Each structure stands twice: as C-alpha cells, then as structure tokens.
Amino acid sequence: MNIKYILVLSMMIILLSCNVYGACPQDDASLVLFSSLSGWNTLNSALTITQRVKVDQSPTNKLKSITIKNGGALIFDDKNLNLDLDYILVESGGEFIMGSDSCPIQNKIIITFYGDRTTDNIIGTDLFDNQVAGAKGIAFFTGSKYQMFGAVNGPSWTLLSQTASKGSQTIQLKNNVSWKVGDSIVIASTDYGEILDYRGTIPKALEWKRGIAFPDQNEERKVSAIQNGGLTIVLDRPLNYTHFVKDYTTAEVGLLTRNIVLRGDPSSDQSEFGGHVFIRLVEKGQMQGVEFTKLGQRGVMGRYSVHFHIMGEKAFKVSDQIFLKDCSIHHAFQRCVTLHDSNGILVENNVCFDTFGHQYFLEDGTEMGNKLINNIGIRPRPVADDKQIIPSDSDVSVFWITNPNNTFIGNRAVGGRFGFWFTMPKDATGASAGKYGTENFYVRPRWQPLGAFKFNVAHSTTGNGFEIDNMEKSDGTTELAGYNPLIGPYPKGVETWELKSIDAIFEGLIAFKNRGYGVWARGGPLVFKNLTLFDNMNQMNSPPGPSIIMDSVMIGETENTGDSSFRPTVDVGGRSRPRLWSTNTEIIKGYETYDNGGPQILRNVLFKNLMTNEYRYAGALGSLSNAPFKHQTRNRYAEIKFENANRYYVSTELYDGNKGTNILDIDGSVTDLKPSGWIVTNESITLFNGCVPKPEWNAYKCPVFAEGYGQLRVTNVDVTATNIVGADGKSYPDLANPSKKVVRMNFVDMLRGHSIPALGATSGGTPRLTLLANVIMRGFYTIRPAYDTPTPAKIEVSLESNADRDWIIFSAQYPRGTQFTITSAVWSGQVTALSAASSLQEVVADRSKYFYDSESEHLFIKLENKAGKSGFSERWGFTDYNYDGFVITINAACPGNRCAPSAYRLPENVKYYHLKYIKEERYIANLQTCQQSTITTVANDAAGQGIAYAFFSPSSRTLDVAVHHDLTKIVTKIEVGIGEAGAERRLIPLHKISPYSLSRFSFDISYDEWVSLVKGEMFIKISTTQYPNGHLRGQLHCNNGKSSTGTPSCSLPPPLPKASACDSIDNNLMFNIYREAEDIKGWPYWDLWVWNGPNTDTANTSVNANYNVAPICGKSSFKFGLQSGGIQIAKHNAPTQTPNPIIDSSVFKYFEFFVKSLSGPLSLTLTFKDLSSDLAAIKITSEYIQHYKIDDTKVTRVRIPVSDLKFKSVKQNVQYIVITLTDRTSYKEFLIDNMRFVTNNATDSSTTSIVTNNDIKGVTSICGTQVTDPDPFTYIINDVSALPSFVMASDKPQDSSKPQPGKSNTASTIIGSGATALLLFIIYLLNTIAVY
After folding, report:
1. Cα distance between residue 1324 and residue 689, in whole Å
2. Is there a contact between 966 and 674 (Cβ–Cβ < 8 Å)?
C-alpha cells in the first residue's frame, strides 16, 4: 500500500478516536453511572448529585427531582433515554451536559416535567439574589453550567421553492434538508391572517381580529418521505390551503422535531401549566438542537418556555457565548424565548410555533446587546382571559421588542396582530423598575439607539407586519407614542431636544399579506432602506417623522390571490381581501402620509399595481383616511416611479385629514411639473389658477410658487364651554361635544374670499379642540364659527410647518366693547404681552402688536416664524425648516359674555389689503444650465432646472429667497452673486444655506447689492457633484407688476448720505473717542479691555488700537477680532477729574463710527453703560448703516441716534462701550475708525441715486429661452387704477351669506373618481370665485 494512504488512514483513525472519546463528554471513563445511584429508579425520589454522573439508563418510575450540587455534573449518554420527574435544579458549581458542539446527541433523549398548577416555589431559591424558580421545570442557578447539543438534522427551517397547492401532498424546498421520516414540520401561511367569526363570543380585547371568519392557514404535517436529495418532501396528508411562491412571496417550512426534547407532561394540555426553563447568571450556557414543547405556565408571571432571567451583563463576561440555537419551541402555553434584563445573548436559527402570548419576548426594556438572528415565529396566540399576565398579550406579536438596542437579522414573523412590535417604555418596567428607577442615566428604552434591523420578513398578520407605536407604559398598558433614538447618556430631567439624535436604520424588510400596514412606524429619525412591501392593505405609514423611505418597492396586489372561497361576499374579484368586513370602502395604498408632523420623505420608491378598479379604490400615494387633523406641509417626495399605479388617492369623506394635504414633489416625478410641484387636496384656500384637477386622485397638482404653504392652527381652549347659540337664535349642542363629527369653524382667505370648513379634533382626552387649515403664506385669514355662533372667548393661534420669515395676518371677530388680554409664547417658554397698535400697518410690521378695528369688529394679529437663518436641519439630502414655537393666546372679555360681532363680515376693500399693507417686492430667477454654461463648462444636454423666488423688503433691506430645483440628489451648494448675464464679478458671503430643494434663506443686502438687484445683476447659482463650479444659474429679475409708465414696479434704493470716513469735522461738533492710536492712552483716559469666548471659538479675542498697515483713515485704526468674546472701550475716572465722559444729548444727537469687515458680512451689537448699569444694547441693523450692511467690500458708516441709547438724563455719563458680535457662528476681524458723538450740524447731505426706473430689469428671456411670467400665483393686483380710497371697514358687509356646516363657500369638492370631465372643469372654475 502506498505510504501516503497509510499516513492518511492513521490520521483519520486518530481524529475519529478524538471525536468519539476525547470530545464526547459521556465517554469519560471516570463517570459514575446514574443507574448505580441509590433511588435512581424509585418513584418520587429526590436525587442529589455531588459527583460527575452519566445517565446511562432510563428510570421506569417518575422521580421527584434531581439537584446537582457544587462539583456535581449530570452527563447524558448518547442513547435513547427518557427521564420523568417534577424538576431539575442545577446549583452554583453544578453542571448539566448533553453532548457537545463537536459531539452532538444522535439519539432521542426526552425529559418530561410533571406537576399540577401551582404558584408555590418548589424548585428553590437562587441564593445570589433570592430569585425563586417556581415549580415544574429545569432551573440553572447562578454559577452553574449547562451545555445541550442535539444533532441538528438541518436546516432548522427553510422556504418553499414552488407553490404548494391546496390538496397537494408534496412540497418543494429551497434548500436540501436532512430531515427524517416521521419528523414534524410546520408550513406557514402565505395568505392574510386569521379572523374570528363575529357571531361567536369574542373578548373585547380581540376586536382587532373580529369579522367575517377567515381561517389560520399555517399547517402542521409529518414527513412521510424525502425525495430529490432532500428538496422534495412527501407529507403524511394533503394540504388544506395553498402556499404561494413567487418572487418575494414564499412560505417558511420549520422543523419541529429534535433529538433532545424537554416537554410538559400529558396533564399540561388541560392545565396549560407546562414545564419551564429558568436560566440565571450561569458560567456557561449553550443549547443547540433542543425541542421544547408543552412548556410555559400560562398566567404565571416569569414562567416561560425558555427564560433568560436577570442575567445582566453576565453573557459579556464569560468566555463562551451564551446561546440558544437551532431549537424548536412549539405548542407552548406561555412564550417561546424570554430575555429578561439579560444582555449579550445569541438567539439564532430557532423555530417557534403555536404558542400563547408574545413569542420572542424582551421583558422589561432593559435588554440590550442581544442578537436575534434567522429565527422564525409562527402563529402566536393572543391571551385575553384571566391568564393574561400583561395587557398587550391580547395584541399578540411574534417579536415583542421593548428595547431597540439589540440586533435583529434575517428573522421571519408569521401571524398574530403584529410581526415585529417595537413597544419601548420610557423607563424600565416590571421587576427591573425598582432596579433602574425612572430617568436612568443609561437606560431609557424609548430613546436607545437601534442595534441592527436587517433582512427581516413579516407576513400574514391580522394587523401590521411591522409596528413602532403603542408603546408600553409602566402598568403594562400601551400609549400612542413614537421612538426617538438619541445618543446617551441621559441626565435626569433632560428633554429630547437637548440630546443629539441618531438615525435608526431599518433595512431590507419584506412585509406582505398583512391586513393592516406592512409598516407602521411612529417616531423619528427613522430610515427605511430597501423595503419590499406588497399585498398589504396599506404598504406603509411613518408618523410623524422625521422619516425617510428610500430605494424601495411597494406593490398593491401581486399574483398571490389567496383563497377567496371562505368569504365570498367579502373576498370578491377572485382574491382574498384584507378588510375584516365588507370591502365597500376599501382603499389599497402604497405610502400613506400621516395627518400631522413631518417630514415624511420618499426617495427612489417604485409603486406597482395600485389602480382603482370595480372592487376597491387604490393609490400609490395617499393620506391617512378619515383622519382628524390636516397634514402639515413638510413632507417631500423625489425620484418616484410608477407601474400600473394611480399616483395619488384620497378619500372624499368629510374629515379634515381628507382635505388638508400639501406635499412637495421635489423633482416633479409625481406631478410631471418641473422643476417641482405640489400635491394639493381639494381645499379652495390652497388652490389657485395654476392648479390642475386630477379626478383620479380626488386632488390637484399645483406648480411651485413664491409664497408656499404653511399650517394655521386655531385651538379652542375649552370646546365644552362653546356658546352654542347661533345668530338665528337656535342652539347647536353638537358644537360643544368633541365626540361629534360636525363642522365647527370656517377658515376664510380674506384676500380671495374663499372659505373652507373644519371639524377639528381633541387629543389626549382634554377639552382643547384643534382646528387646522393649510394656507398660502403672506396672506390674510380669518375664522367664522359655524352657524354664526360666537367666537370662542379664549383661543390659541399659531402658524406652523413653514420657514423663517414666513407669515400671515390672522383675524377673528369680536363685538365692540371687548377687552383683550393677548400674549405670545415661544419654545423657550417666555410669555410676552402684545401691545395695542393704532393701525393694521403696525401689526403687519411687528408680530408683538395687535389691532382691533371697531368698524369691522376684526381683531388682527401677525403670525410670523422667527426661527432664524440657521433655523433648519438637514437629513438624508433633504431640509426641514424649524418653527420657533410662536403661539398667540387671545383672551376676550366680551360684553354680556357673548363674543358674537354685530355681523360676520369681511372688512370693506379687504381684497386690496395686500397691495396697501404689504411692502415686499417680488423677484424671480429661472435657473438654467445655459445661463451657467457661458461661464463654466456645462454640457448642452446636462439635466436640471430650477426656479428661484425672492421677496425684497425695501424697509429692512432683506431678500427672502425660495429655490426649487430637481437636482437634490447631487446638489452641493447654492450661492448668490453679483454679475450681469454671462459674468460673475463676485459671490456674496452668506450664512450656511441648505442646498436641497426646497431651499429657503434670507440675507441683508447692501446699497450696492440693491443696485445690482434692480438692474438684474444678482444671480442664484447651484453647483452639484457633476458640475462643482456651477450647474444651474439664473438672474433675479423684478416681477412685481408694472408701474403707471409700464416699467417694472420695483423700488429703487434711496439716495445715500455723502459721509466719508476721512471727512473732517470741527471739534466743536463732536465728542471724540477714537481718531488715532494716541486717543487710547490708558488710565485715566480711554482704554481697551477684552475677554475671550469659550474654547469652541476659532480664536481668542484680539485688539490693536494702532493698526497702521491699511487703516481706514489717517495713521491708524482699531483692528478687532471677535467671536463669542467681547471688547470694552472704557473711560477711567481720575481723582482730580469729574466722571467722564458726560454726553449732553441736547447737543450731541448721534453716535457714529466707520467700519469695514475683513472677513465677510459682519453683525455687531453695541452696549452702552454708565458706572452702574446698562443704558442700551443696540443691534446694528441696516437702518443704522450707511450702505445697509457691514462687509468687506467697502468702508461704511454706522450712525445711531442718541435717542435710541435710552439716556437716564439729558447729560449722561457714558463709561463703557462694549462691542460684541450679534452672529457668533464664526470668528470675524474688522476695522473701526473715527468713533465719536456728533451734533446735528454734523449731518451730511445725500448723494444722487445712481439708478433710475429705466434701469429696472423685468422678467426677460436669457440664452434663447422665452419667458413671460413664470410665477403662477400672486396676491398682487396689477391693475390698480381703480384702487378705492381706503378705510378699514364699512358698515355694510361685503356679503351677508352664511356658510353652512359641511359645505365650503366655494364648490370645491371633487365628486369622485367617476366624475365627468365637464363637471370637474366647472368645479375647477368655481374655485376661483370669491364668495363669503
């Protein structure tokens, strides 16, 4: 024989010997035989194991117990064995061993636990922490070890590879299996979940599955033959149901049989009191290839099939991974696998089938770092009787997840109400509540970051496949609440907004045939990637956000028609239907937008097979049907694709949620509008002439426009106290009953006369009734109660879902003689009283004032968002703009306690209010590749287009810009610059601008920039990853109507003061502070003090009173460097001097200095002080600046009237002048010169304006593109020749007609998808009619 073969054969013999003898624990020759122990086969004997014992024979009598003491070990031989007893206890230092990972048990070992139902502690108490083990089962106490390895004739589970039809007796598998004839298997349903027959007695807690009966289609069978190399299984009897396979639809096939079996005794079925496995802080704990059946003790807390109990961090501290792998748990009375305050456990490749209560159960919300991988759970049974241990067991789930900081990969959930239920409590619950307390520094389940959630599958539930909502409370009940992942630790008392959020990323989820939602996910920030959702009633909803769904597929109906034979009156059209009852109002949806909050974002999502047909309505996109609230306007769609799908559908029933939807289609992929469009539901106050009706949507598509949308919120603080007597003298009690679905208020667009009804809703069981209206910004709106009942005496009003500087004017009518107490509040909690104004113009200019017009009986307030230039957040390539929390509370003390005006009416000539009171001017820019290609290289066929709208305020010299474009996926920046078409002279340094569409930003402009603006020499430029130096560009042009001479009607900058930095001023006309360096002499004269900001500053504060490199004037200037620190110019007092300086305000009328920034735009705040206190803190705004802005383009003068400094007396000691930055986001260097107080005689004359009306550039074509007026909407009335003389109101109302509840004053309701085109066109025209 060849020597090589002899060596190989020798090595194989050696290895086999090692495997048989060295690696198999039962082969240890030193083991004591179980059959040699006293009492080993004596009925009800209690054995104590203190040495290493091998179970070599099966006792023929039932034992009472086996207790393994310190130093003892119970090791099972690999032979067919049966062990009947009440319990096994493994104490500290004891070991329980069945096989090993390299020598698993090949034969059948069955341990059966006996015992009647009891709550007594029979097994014993773990001395580590006095935890009791109860009765009937096996307990591994702290310090013990166990290993149980049964040979896995795997895999544990696989999938069908072909459809298995009803009546078939063979199934085809995806993977080769090594199962055996006689093994039990389960084949999962691929149809909808079970429905209980409504005619039976059903507990209230199970209403979620009550309806027209539909069977559970999960089937258990035995293997009668194995063919085709383990790919074909012959069953012991035919299938009762079809199990469909195609594409992502398939059925799980789980192996229930294992070689090692732990089970309850025959009485367990009747008592529902099986055995249980109780695992503590073991030194080693490994189970693989074990079958658990008839385990769990229904109704007894803590007695679960397999229970890892309060192990804490133990699994991270032992050398070997603690795990449960390739096991089956079936026909169990309470749960499958419970992780209770235990971390770091591996649960992998297990099969759970037909059990009561949640199956994979994270008990108290403290469980973290566990890994649940490739497990399946099928048919969890709800518990709604007196054996329910927590209330949510009636809403049963496969995976009950109370802490997200765990790993879930490749798991599959079939049946129950929820497949995966994230139900995190605020704090630890149950037994852990006392251990962790409330507001724990590290453990806040509802805030913990997500570990991992990838490639899981949920199907055939009677509710939602995936659920984040209905969060657990401390008493075990649930509440509507979201998941907000935050980075810890979590100090006591901290609020969510004080912590940094972190994305929770859910990837690769498949959900199908769920009667509710494939995914319902409340909270944010949540990221969903690569979802595949199909055959659900609704594929997804993710309230309220922020959330994003990307790179996903949503399919309304597939070829999996299910079985329609069980409910022929419901499951019509040859397929099973998701509804519990009739399908008359069924709507199948792709993504459904929630009725408040946001942003909810879709990117690169494909919708298929969502067309309305004779059996049900359908829409790829839609809104939460019949919801009580209107949708905020923050939601965004991009890169949406459709195949055989109605793009949008909304119900026409009279609910606020069916009316208030305004969703931005960023790239026009839904609306086919470029560069972007709005999806708008049928409410006249949000529609305009550019909107196009879409009857199949029951909605409109509208082009983007300058004003945009926001949400007006009016809250009746106590709806139950509503005055229900209408102007007709009749009572309408339903108006004061929040449970009634009635129209309570009408919102009116005062400028256009359109009105819409609102029902409103309460939340949280309070009497506070919220009424919402989505409105066009920069408009005038009022409310009118239904039936002309009185206006509520106390209301709260706010404007939300918009960007910085967005505003509306709001009014409500109150009778003459009403006394008002009006306050405002913001997020900080600061409450400020509004002051009464003498005119509406004051209110338009200042949100801190209100105006009551006694003629029209209208109370006017301004709602304006002042979140600031940095008031936005960016996520996932999209922008969400902040709301500053501004809420106005109106308390009205009305004559006779009846707040009804003499007549509900609009002020006379209200349609001209915008023209009279609004002093903003409109500019517009078409963003084109051809405008940029003349400056940098851009391909002729480069994609992309955009439009920029700008509002310019001549009084504040501020430009408020909105940019829409279709390049959000690749955009890198938006810039504003100066240069005529084809040129780029300079870019204007600005604060951070979010480049993503819709981009909103504002900035102050200088005098020279105003000149450039009116001349059409200011541009907007967009750069992308494809063209980093410019992709799109557009010149801003005046689009503000025409003047009487026909020229564009935009304002010219007024003449400038002639003042120059080096102009000489007579010493008698000024009080000098700094002219040259020698003026800063130190004590007892003028001196400089500085202080630094925090370490986060870019650099420390710096001062140089003798900067002479390039001074503004003369030999020297101040040179300062600042961020968060400050500079103080101080005048000392010498003993021989009177306090100086004394500024005589009867002589000196201005404080001034000349300044130039060395690092872009500069905003300063000056604080003037005397010896004891501050006089005034002055923000240097454009009204004080000669050229309106301090920047690095030129020297400009700052001049502040002394009257603004709030002197305490005519002659005022000014001891200190403190200079700080208003905007401290970056370090700034700048020069200052000629600082002084001056007299009136130092006032200089003005220059002549350098532009005329003929220089104003109106909308025009550039690079061959013909442009007329690309702005589809404006409040401006261009023809003002007949403008009436103005009064606030008239005694005669415009229209005495009264809107009726349930009806809009404009015929704006789309009849339905079957309405004729003619009728729809008439409705469309009626939307433009102004009626009140």
Report:
1. 9
2. yes
Element (H, E) at 1091: strand 1086-1091
DSSP state for residue 1013 in the 8-state scheme:
H
Which of 490, 478, 388 has its CA nearest to residue 449?
Answer: 490
Least confident of 95-109, 573-587, 880-894: 573-587
CB atoms within 10 A of CB 99: 28
42 SS3 class: coil
1111: nearest Cα among 1078, 1076, 1086, 1060: 1076
- What is the pairing mode between strands 260-264 and 131-132? unpaired
Q: How far apart are CA 611 and CA 619, in angstroms?
A: 6
Torsion of CA 1184, 1186, 1192, 1194, to 10 degrees: -160
DSSP three-state, residue 983: coil
Buried b vs exposed e over 217-243: b needs ≥16 C-beta within 10 Å? bbbbbebeebeeeebbbebeeebebbb
Least Cα distance to 781 among 872, 650, 684, 855 occurs for: 684
Other Cβ atoms less than 10 A from the Cβ of 1299: the count is: 24
Give the single-character DSSP code of 1112: S
Apex 109 CA angle, 108 and 115, nearest 5: 135
The Cα–Cα gap between 65 and 50 comes to 14
- Is-contact 320 345, C-beta < 8 A? no
Do 875 and 805 touch, CB atoms closer than 8 A?
no
CA–CA distances in Å: residue 160 to residues 177, 181, 250, 258, 919? 12, 18, 6, 21, 70
CA–CA distance from 254 to each of 156, 157, 218, 354 (Å)? Answer: 6, 4, 11, 12
Q: What is the pTM of this model?
A: 0.90
pLDDT for res 1268: 58
Single out the residue of 1000, 1002, 770 nearest to residue 887, CA to CA. Answer: 770
Sign of CA dihedral 1277, 1283, 1289, 1292: negative
18 pLDDT above the threshold of 80: no
- Assess contact for 262 and 291: CB atoms under 8 A: yes
Sign (positive/negative) of CA torsion 1271, 1272, 1274, 1280?
positive
The token duo for 717 is 């603080």
Q: Rounded to an integer, what distance in angstroms lies between the CA atom of residue 972 and that of residue 1134?
A: 59
Helix-, strand-, coil-residue percentages of the chain, each rounded to 5: 10, 40, 50
Which candidate, 955, 1175, 1165, 1187, places its Cα nearest to that of 1061? Answer: 1187
Contacts 24+ apart (CB under 8 A), 336-339: 336/304, 336/305, 336/306, 336/360, 336/361, 336/377, 337/304, 337/305, 337/306, 337/308, 337/361, 338/304, 338/305, 338/306, 338/307, 338/308, 338/309, 338/363, 339/308, 339/363, 339/367, 339/370
In Å, what is the CA distance from 1058 to each residue of 26, 1075, 1243, 1287? 104, 19, 10, 40
Output the CA torsion 617→622→625→631 (10° steps).
Answer: -160
Residue 127's region, left for phi above 0, alpha for psi from -120 to 50, else beta, is alpha
Residue 194 CA, distance from chain mean position: 32
Residue 660: pLDDT band by 50, 70, 90 thresholds? confident
Residue 882 to residue 632: CA distance in whole angstroms = 13
Summarize pLDDT for 1148-1181 with one digit per residue, the tens: 999 999 999 999 999 999 999 987 788 889 999 9
Q: Is the pLDDT of residue 21 over 50?
A: no
Q: Locate 997 and state its tokens.
A: 């569409």
Taking every pair of Cα atoms in the chain, the longest distance, rounded to a whole number of angstroms, is 124
Yes or no: say if 380 and 450 are a contact pair by the CB < 8 Å rule: no
Note the pLDDT of residue 1294: 30
- What is the pLDDT, as a whole number, of residue 1243? 67
On whether the CB atoms of residues 853 and 837 are closer than 8 A, the answer is no
